[in-house]
Amino acid sequence: MSSKQSLFELVGGRPTLERVHTRFYDKVYAHPWLGQFFQGHSQQAIELRQTQFMGWKMGGDIIYPGMELELAHRRMYITPELLKLRQELLRSALAEEEIEPALIDRWLKIDAAFWRQIQNDSLASFRAIDLKYEQPLVIPDPAA
Ligand code: HEM
């Protein structure tokens, strides 16, 4: 019996996700604004979590043992502008790894489905979140 291939299989499975995420986080960590959010966090650990998370969401037989996205990001002030910037870095990493354009669109669509769990619409609403003992992280655009 044949079944429809998952996006995970279509892009080439775990080795492809690992290559894409290494390239993607190389760009993120080197970025003057986005990179500041990741200071003090192991790049290798984040790449692994992103591969597990996206592998699972793309239909792969993969376990994601990380935190819920809302909880993992709630102390960071993440605006739509930052999410779009991050998406552009992801799009170029996918293109450089020669993923087919139609599959790039599917990959980015899955990624964008999680934005609403992470995004803050205003500094006032972000400041109203009860972070208990966590320190809020608000990083202005250094180019602004
Ligand atoms: C501009 C937007 C974003 C920024 C600045 C950002 C930043 C970060 C940082 C700093 C961490 C490490 C948190 C920690 O270890 O305490 C993290 C973890 C993570 N992020 Fe993001 N993120 C963004 C968007 C996204 C999106 C859109 C997704 C998924 C589609 C995502 C998936 C994850 C995952 C899976 C983890 C690992 C959580 C864990 O270790 O349990 N992030 N992110």
UniProtKB/TrEMBL annotation:
Binding-site residues, heme: 73
Q: Which UniProt keywords apply?
A: Heme, Iron, Metal-binding, Transport
* Short name of any one Pfam family annotated for the protein: Bac_globin
Cross-referenced CDD domains, in alphabetical order? TrHb1_N
Specify whether ATP-binding is a keyword of the entry.
no
Name the source's superkingdom.
Answer: Bacteria
GO MF terms listed in the record are: heme binding; metal ion binding; oxygen binding
Q: Gene3D superfamilies recorded for this chain? A: Globins
Cite the SUPFAM superfamilies for this sequence: Globin-like (SSF46458)
Is Metal-binding among the key words of this record?
yes
This protein's name: Group 1 truncated hemoglobin
